[in-house]
Write a structure and sequence with these properties.
451 residues, Phospholipid phosphatase, single chain, mainly alpha
Length: 451
Amino acid sequence: MHDLLNSVQSLPPGLIYLVAALVVAAETALIIGLVAPGEATLLLVGFLTYTGTLRLGPALLLMILAAVAGDAVAFRSGRRYGLRLRASRWGARVGAHRWARADAMLARMGGRGVLTARWVAFARTLVPRLAGAAGMPYRRFAPWNLAGVVSWVGGSVLVGHLAGESYDTVSRLLGRATGAVLVLVAALVAVVLAGRWLGRNPDPVRALAARAGRLPPVRWLSARYGLLFFLLSLRLGSAWALLANLAAGVLLLFVVGLAIAWTMRAVVRHSGLALVDGAIASWFALRRTPDAVEATQAAVSVLRGSSLIVVVGVVAVVQAWRHRPWRADLLSVVGTIGAFVPLVVLALVADLTGGGRMVLFSTQNAVVTASLCTLAWLLSRGARWPVAVAAWTTAAVGVIGVGGARLYLGMSTASGTVGAVLLGAAWTAVFMVAWATRDRAVAAGGPPAAG
């Protein structure tokens, strides 16, 4: 492999740019991504920018343009030949299950599915064609696709660049990261399942209590002391009972938050990201100037988690007042007027789990990420696609900007920033999935079933 890398580095830079761009474009344009995903090419390009064979800026720009061009060709091909391609011999080799999974992602998520597909190998190859065949307007497809391309290409090239020094270092990092990625995928599946369960059980404490009530010991207590429990509930009153139920629900959210945080902690600890913390910190330290530090500190002090939690609270109250009726269950509270509550719980969870000998979470980064994602979710819910794209793009820029600013100031490490962003995004995803599940259940003909 060292001989291969040396051979590649000896080629003219122009030829390397051209071949890499063709591979990245062909991944979707010619459907070769099903057998040869483009991440390896982008990691190699990033590695070559570290060695000086290629320049980072031009490489990033050219790979982004190549990916956008490949997706445009795939979109146009899907518009003209989509049904014919699926029925062809090559379409049969792709497999009906892959077409079906990509169809389901696009139907369920729309433009957001185009963005998400960029991070899933088979979907990245098929979704542009499916979007074209489904008649999605290109003006809707293009901004979501561009956001996915920029994040995926930029992240892959930068990982290859930062992993630097030698192929052995890259290999070691990728080898250590494999297990962490598997844990992360399992955690994301668990997040989706937790969100779906919460969507079907918007009052989770009562749902769990109902299930517990079917257990033999609880049935015995209910039969023996049921009248006493009934009299106590009358004495307590409906208002205090509601408050007690909501308080128990928040406690349940805290337990779920701890589980997510400990999982993300394990992902960060075993990913190998800490190996590049020192190099990244040194890179930022060499570029600090007094004026830039002062401006960055001012920006970070304004975009603090506490400030954003207040903004989320105000936006949630205004939206609840204007658009949605309030309901007396936990999901309605945290999805409308109480959208700030999960952020407060997250701040406490991050404080409790981020410490130790090595700071694995930056509480500010976690809360800022969750707050900006929550704001984007609130503003894009039910809005037209230009508003949704603008909201989520602003949130992504904000998360990257605040994380980069704190790295620049030396206030957090690269691994801590990644862990915090994962924690904040996963925490928001629970409620997004829950709300979407509940909306689908209501649209299907009634409220979600409890229990």
